[in-house]
Structure formats: structure tokens, C-alpha cells
């Protein structure tokens, strides 16, 4: 087939020290179509998400053998890792967004940037392409707040890519859904694994991969989120709230809540009370 002449648009940003305190900043955005030039081998000092929306190509990283890239897919370029890629003829279509900051490592740890699989197949590229397109539109418009506006959209891109992964249910993984459903039951992690019909070690691996934490921490976060809702929206005593979220020992619940939330349950309630009447519907019954 005849190669399609490349068409491209790019815009790069230089966030200042104040912007970098946001934790995650956008360094650039672009769109390329057609028989674009081969990239690399090269090494970057920041992350890049290359969203291939149409076409096929190849990608290699860390000096390894090339692997096929078939749209829709995202290619993750990781800081400090050599990469090399190009489309096959007649070319492909791609969006890319460059980003950096300490929060980028956190998104990678949480599985939103898949370092283990730098070419990640997607079920659709549309949600992520729309989000990256909004970054491009902001750059076209220009604004005194451009660095803040574009950086605020980068997490939306990462979340859209996570939801669109071919190996993930867009409505959430059934393992996490099962844990969330039974999170407030006063049972052990081992019992949760039994209820889900999987070995404990497999549950730990799955939750670490999907949520970036241990099953215990995942369950604790759900319980404390529910506890906050009850503290802010009802007049249930702290001990009753503790029991509702799976803790029979109110003193232990208070210590745990204080350590994770940074304040005791009673102080959280006093600060967050919005005047909900006792027994508000969010209470969930007796």
C-alpha cells in the first residue's frame, strides 16, 4: 500500500516550580497521522502515553525484541527506559501526552500506567482520545492558566485508559466488586478469599495488581469511607458506626480512624456535619 504523508500537530509546555507542586504536570500533547517517522531508539526523563487510534505498528523497549501494536492500544513510554517504535505502512493515527511529577509514580504503582505491559490493548480509544483532545483544545485557545488546566486533565486521560483496557471490565473487576460488596462484614481476608472462590495468595496478587494495595488496605478504605458517611450523615454513636462497618471494638476503630483520617471520629463528625436529620436515608437502616 502507498504510504500516507504524515500530518502532525504538537504543543509543548514548560510548567514552573509552582505548577510542579501540583504533583502531576502536562509537558506536551500532539496528534500524528500517516507514515510518521520511526521514533528512537531514545530515552526520556518523563512518562508519555501514546494512544494509537488507528493502524498497526511495532514497539520495543529496554533493548528487547519488537512486539506488534494494533489499534486501539496505548504505548507507555517510561522514564529512563529506552524505546523504539514506528507504524507499518501506510501509517497509523496517534495522540500523545507527555507528563511528569511525583504523582506519575503513584499512578504507575496503582496500575494506571502499566509498566509490566508497555503495549496495552484497549477496547476503545474514544474516551482517552476525547480527554487528550481537550488538552489540545486548551493549548489552541491559550490561557493564563494553561499549565494548570492541561495538567488537571492528565488524570482523566489515565482513568479513561484504565477503563478502556481490553483485560478489564469497564464496570470494575469482579474481585474488587466482591470485596466491596462484603467489605463491612466482620470477616478475615482469608474468609473473603474463600467467599470469592480463590486462594489467599491469588487474592493478594489480584488486589495488588488492580488497586495497588493489599486486600486489607482495600477493605479498610471502603470501611472508613462508609464510616465517614455515617458520621457525617447520621447521629449514630461512634460505637454503632464502628459495628456498622465491621469493627466490634470501638476503641480499635477510633485508633484506626484517627491514624488514617488524621482526626478522631468525633472531631470528623463535628467538622463535617451538614445538618442531616437523625436517621437520614443514607444511614442504610438499622
CATH class of the largest domain: Mainly Beta
What is the terminal-to-terminal distance? 69 Å
Discrete helix count: 11
Query: How many discrete domains?
Result: 2
The assigned structural class equals alpha+beta
Number of strands: 10
Mean pLDDT: 90
Uncertain stretches: 278-286
Which sequence of strands runs across the widest sheet?
A: 1-2-9-4-7-10
User: Which architecture of the largest domain per CATH?
Assistant: Sandwich
What order do the SSEs take from the amino end to the carboxyl end, as H and E?
A: EHEEEEEEEEHEHHHHHHHHH
CATH fold-level topology of the largest domain? Jelly Rolls
Strand content: 15-25%
CATH superfamily of the largest domain, called what? Answer: Regulatory protein AraC
What tags apply to this protein structure?
2 domains; 11 helices; Jelly Rolls; 6-stranded antiparallel β-sheet; 4-stranded antiparallel β-sheet; Arc Repressor Mutant, subunit A; alpha+beta; 286 residues; 42% helix
Written description of the protein model:
The chain has 286 residues and is an alpha+beta fold. It folds into two domains: 157 residues, Regulatory protein AraC (Jelly Rolls), CATH 2.60.120; 110 residues, Homeodomain-like (Arc Repressor Mutant, subunit A). The chain has eleven helices and ten strands. The chain has a six-stranded antiparallel β-sheet. A hairpin with a 5-residue loop joins strand 5 and strand 6. Helix 3 runs antiparallel to helix 4 and helix 9 crosses helix 10. The radius of gyration is 23 Å and the shape is elongated. The relative contact order is 0.10. The C terminus is likely disordered.
